[in-house]
Amino acid sequence: MARGGRDRLLGLALGLLLALALAPRALRAKPTVRKERVVRPDSELGERPPEDNQSFQYDHEAFLGKEDSKTFDQLTSEESKERLGKIVDRIDSDGDSFVTTEELKTWIKRVQKRYIYDNVAKVWKDYDRDKDDKISWEEYKQATYGYYLGNPTEFQDTSDHHTFKKMLPRDERRFKAADLDGDQTATREEFTAFLHPEEFEHMKEIVVLETLEDIDKNGDGFVDQDEYIADMFSHEENGPEPDWVLSEREQFNEFRDLNKDGKLDKDEIRHWILPQDYDHAQAEARHLVYESDKDKDEKLTKEEILENWNMFVGSQATNYGEDLTKNHDEL
């Protein structure tokens, strides 16, 4: 599979936009291009596409974080290399002047984790209305659905009515799953699990269930091949299916439908969107080492990394400038 499946992080906004973000698959208009659902990619490194600007962008985001990858275009190549040198010094945790795959893997995981917690911090004050450093279900419900609940007649004849009617109980179910102590109030960790369920083991069943509910249009509790394709592709009348759609039909038959009964159950959906045998950070670290290791000693010097700087932080789409001003104790 292409690497689009790697980028499955939930967006955040107020009102309807926030509701859309909390269940993005259910509410977005159907795209005319391929849409990915895999929380972790299921492709092997050998199947990666050729390294062009688009594929470098993922390397940049994995190495620096999605937010910090946005403004690196503003830097010259010399500035980029200088700042990359500083980050290399931090990655080299044992100070032996080499960066190993394990050190890169640790760094990438920390970058991912920081993005998630920074994301929650940005919206925390919008929901913690009584400033007690916790968010109750009522606080979240009022912040997200308050206008709808207070003015239901305005939504009676609109598609938004169906949207909110569906989203409210779904969000409540997810909130309860994240609320481990059952006090109807979320700590920062619990609220992070609520907003980013794909990152928490105890929330994986919610991710699977919501995916099933989104795609299962006939309500039989399974995903058949046509539902699987319809979730990725909006077929125009009498138009031919692109080659990638035909390939996805083959994927469904050969790799998704494990028991060959023509449909996906919850276990098969879990196997599809939450592959257990793939470590994203490990794969990316191995890829970066493989592509930059000129002397093939399976570790990188600072010089080898700087020589291949464009793959790590190159001028296409990365922002490390902000990162350098932060306190890196959290990384």
Automatic annotation (TrEMBL):
Residues 1-29 form the signal peptide. CDD domains: EFh_CREC_RCN1. InterPro entries: EF-hand-dom_pair (IPR011992), EF_Hand_1_Ca_BS (IPR018247), EF_hand_dom (IPR002048), Rcn1 (IPR027241). Residues 33-51 have a biased composition (Basic and acidic residues). Gene3D superfamilies: EF-hand. One of its GO terms (molecular function) is calcium ion binding. Residues 79-114, 115-150, 166-201, 203-238 form the EF-hand domain. GO terms for cellular component: endoplasmic reticulum lumen. Pfam families: EF-hand_5, EF-hand_7. GO terms for biological process: camera-type eye development; in utero embryonic development. Keywords: Calcium, Endoplasmic reticulum, Glycoprotein, Metal-binding, Phosphoprotein, Repeat, Signal. Residues 32-56 are annotated as: Disordered. It is found in: Endoplasmic reticulum lumen. Belongs to the CREC family. May regulate calcium-dependent activities in the endoplasmic reticulum lumen or post-ER compartment. This is Reticulocalbin-1. The gene is RCN1.
